[in-house]
Structures are given as structure tokens and as C-alpha cells.
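Data availability (excerpt). The following record was deposited with the supplementary files.
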Amino acid sequence: MTIVADTTTTKDFSLTAITIIPGTGTVSGTVSEAGDGPLPGATVSVSNSTGITYATTALIDGRYTVYNLPVSAGGIGYTVFCGANGYYPSSQGVSLSDAAPNAIADFSLEKITILPDTGQVSGKVTKSSDGSAVSGATISVNTGTEILATISLIDGGYTVYNIPYGSYVVYAGALGYESSSSPASLTSGAPNAIVNFALTGISINDNLGKMYGMVTKAAGGALVGATISINTETEIFATTSLIDGSYNLVNITPGNYTAVCGALGYVSDTKLVDLTGTDWVNVNFSLAAIEITPGTGRVFGLVTRASDASAVQGASLTIGALSTTSLFGGEYMIFNITYGNYTVNCVAAGYASANAPANLVNETPVMVNFSLTLGGEPPVPEGTVPLTIARNGPNIELNWNTTAYPAIDIYYLNGDGTGQFSNTTGWTLLAPDITVSPYSDNGQVGTGNDERYYKALVANIDPDVSPVDGDPSYIASAWAVGKINYAFGGGNTFFSVPLRLIGNMDRIMGNQNFGDGAGYVAGSRIYKQTGDRTGFNTTDFLGVGWTNTLGIDPDKGYYYYNTGSEITITLVGNVPLSAIPETMSGGNTLFSVQFPARYAFTVFGAGTAAGDRVLIYNRLALPTPGFDTVNQSQFGVTGVRLSGMVGYYYYRDPLAAPLVWTPSLP
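Predicted structure:
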């Protein structure tokens, strides 16, 4: 409506009477200006975790009432938001039950004083489904040193005031809706920006994980606009905290995860969360402000996808030893950087890595944005760097992606000759002669011919702190096992080798080097299990008189007969990073436990049938190749403990469907 000076303008309104629904509750109260009288026209909205929002405006005397709010015997929690143009918003929590269906929430709003040399962001928040207004939504801007926030009014409109000139990410979120973000830039010549949001409603799946809680500052008070996220390795679930610090994160794939909460200018907080059930799980976070060192600089910016400019969350940004991750809106900020020239590195799972220069000469923040293209090597969590193994004559070589990881440290543990590696003596830093292939982005280093377990970390990561290696006395599964020695005594020995196929890769271990011929005695031979028979075929053995290498299949068990006193087998290559499913078809299936991995007490998957059994090869009891049908582990749902030094035979009713079983690592 337009009002012209010295004229009279009329506007008619048609009000619809509210029909009171029996068995519901109300929230009522007054809205006033701090230190003054009533504040008519202020918006009061009431929301619950399902996203249902009820809204009204304060009357001429400041009174308001929100009707027809659902109640229950145990009580339903609501958040009451109150806001008005030109005033700081406020919120309160209430609970409505059958016994106490009515609540009172009074508000006293403080008027905003407009500061010089600042701008504002304004716009509307609507539903993506029908374009109708969303009232009570939180809109926030984090400058890195302060967080400015407001709520949307009854028509969905909002304004965030007193924003210093610069480039920022504007967040919008509301209970029951997916959070959204959008960049905005304010300058002295264009101090005002319009940013509209269309929020998508969330339909909560009762069969999936749900968590809720509060994000607060360690120094006290709610922390608005913080990112709360869970990375399941296949999907990132994320949201942002509201004006009162509350958040809901729903529809998460069931499992145990690490929830991360972060905000510009604060030290991130992490919590272990069990979301294997279907109940709501309460998880609260407290973030401490980063202490700014005088005389240092900052680098900030946005990480986006090149194809559509959408935000990339969870990217790793590093400058020397300093690092951070991008938040929900793709923004990041690295603090306390000594003045100088740097390279900012950006790595994100599923994207090609990128880097850009940054020159810091004073405390003025330097902006460095990244636009990432899909592809590249996904980083391994906890600072680890993926390694692959290559055979080069009697030696081995480690390879890694130098574009994704331009600066790494390689550590190793020495083996004890039986495939076990203890870190009780600490990790040793490898000082390699690193070379980069001229036709690829792979780094490569030769490591000699020692029995070692290797791992590579992003430079300056403490090998004894990150990543977690499980049992500190035994490394069950290596990032890269360059070489494993296994001693064979005289006579018959069953052995299992770490031969598995991963994706479209060739055999991981390839040809095996049997001690470079050392200790071999003519007549020694390896027997291979074939067909569906229990045991080994003594007429089907692999060679007589071999002295060095021998190709062996990744899906067979083997029996070695040594006519001498002792020989050492040397395995060269990668060991898979995790347990690999085994398919137990009907009939007899021989399987080799991954050597040197030991499997913990393991429950076989759903579908085990009566009569299923595991036959264990016990070389102490049997003088000849094969399995003892008397020496077996009967199991059902209780599981069976498997040793990494023994071979097994699984029997299943030939008419039964295949059983997929995933052994668990220690």
C-alpha cells in the first residue's frame, strides 16, 4: 500500500474468527519495548520439532495469544520466537501438557542502534512447496568476530543490521526445515543486499536416526548459526543452530558416528553419537572462542562447486601447520597467521584438490575462494594419506597423489618376522628420496627390502595421536604393508595369504617372493585346494624346484610342504583396509583368514542354518594335509573366534542359499 502526503488512503481488512479446537493449548503474553511501553505489530511465532509453526502479532496494547497448540500427557516442547523490525529478537521455551495446556511468555525487545559504516541484509523466508511465508526462521551472518542474527516476521520478511562491509555467508534455518545459505557482499557503495530463502520442509522418518540439542558459547549464551554435521562416509547430514542455539538433525542413516559442531571464530567441538536406535538423542555442544594473537592475519573465503556454485561443506583448508574445514555454507576462516606469503591448499572428498596464494601484510583479512571440480582422490579421514604399493625387483615402492597431498610424512614400524607390527617402540619417520613422475601427479619413493608397515600422514600430524590405530600393541590392518615375512617349519604348513580383489584392481599381492630362494630345499611344494572337496589334492601342486616367485590365486587356500627345516615366505603388497565379505555358498567353501589380520569374536550374518559349521585346520593334531571333521566349531548366532594363523573350511547345506558373512576386525 502506498501513502501519499496530504491525502487520505483507506484499506479494508477481513478478519477470520479463530475456531478453538478442544484439547489444545495456548501461549500468551505481552511484547514491549525495553524501557518503554507496548510494541504493537511484533511477530510471535511458536514452533516445535516437526516444523509446525503458529504465528500471530501483538495488539495495540502489546498483548498476544497463539491458539490451538497440540498438547500431550507428557508435554510437548515449543520454542516461542518474538521479533520486530529494528529490534533485537528474543526467544523462550515452553511445554504444554494435558494438565497444563496454557503457558505465558512475555518479551521485552531492545531497539537496534544503527552503526556507521555498516550495511544490512534483508529479504523474505518462504516455503519452497507453496511460497507461503515462514515466520520465526533464524537468519544469521557470522563476520568471524561476531554473529549478527534476527528472525523472520509474520510475512516472512527479515533484516539483519550493522554488518561491517565485506563478503559473508547468510544462513536461514527453522525447526522442521532444511537449513539454507547464500553469499552476500556489502560495500560502502552498495551497503544493502537482498537475500531471499525458500526453505524445504523435512518429513521425519521414524526409522532413521534423530538428534537434537543446544549449541552454546563456552563463555555463556546461545551460539547461533553454528554448523552441526555428521559424515557417514557416503553422505553428509548437516544443519545450523537457531537464534536460541537449538538444532534438530534428522533422518540419519543408523550407526555410530562422530558429530562435529563448528562456527567461524570458534574451536570446533565433537561428540560420539549412537544413532543405532530410533529415539531422539540429545547432544549438546559448547564452543570456545578462538583467542586472536595480536599482530597476525586471517585468511577467509568460500569453497563452492564449479558446476553450480553450491557450497562445499567439510573441505579441508590448510596453510602450513594451520588448518580448518569449510562449514555448512562453504565458508571458512583461518586465524593467527604470521604475516608472509603462503599457499592455501583445499582438499575435499570427491573433488580435485586446489591451491591458491595468499599474501598477508597486516591484520586485514585476505579472501581466498575456491571453486572445485568433481574428481580427484578422496582424502582418508583423520589426516591419513592413501598409499599404494608397487613391486620393483626385490624392493617395493610407495605411491601417493601429490596434487591432493603436496606435503606428507611417511612413518613405519618394523615387523617381527611373523606379520605382527608393534608400535610400542614408537613410529619411525622415513626420510625418503621423493620423486614425482613427469607424466602423472604421483609421488613415489623406494623403501628397500625391509619388513615394514607404513602409513602416511598429512605433514605435521602426530603419528601417535592421529589416526587411531586400534589396539596399540598390534596393527591388525595396515594402510600399506610393504613386506611380510612368515616362517615355515619343516613338514606340512597350511597358510592363508592376504589375497583379495578390491574393485577392478588386479591381485593385490601378485607374485609372491619365497625368501629369494633362501632356505629352499628341492622337493618342497605348495598344494592348492581345488573344486569343492574338503582338503587338498596332492596331485595338484604348484611346481617343483621353483626358487623365487610363484603366482598364487586370491581365492584359494594353500598348503606348503617343506622338505627342509625352515623357509621364509616374503609377501609384498597392500593389505585391504577393512574386513571383506565372504560368500558361503551351499556345500564346502574354503576360506583363508586375511593374514596378518586377526578376526575378533565374530557373529556370522543373518541366515545361518542348523548344521552349518566351520572346520578348523589344526596342524598340531593332523600330520597330513586336510581338515578334521571332528575338530570343528559349531556356531549359530553366538559367533566364532578366528585366528589369523589358521585355515578354515565352511560347510553349509548344499540346498541353502548363500550366506554373506563379513568378519570383524579386532
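Summary of structural features: The domain at 381-462 is CATH 2.60.40 (Immunoglobulin-like).
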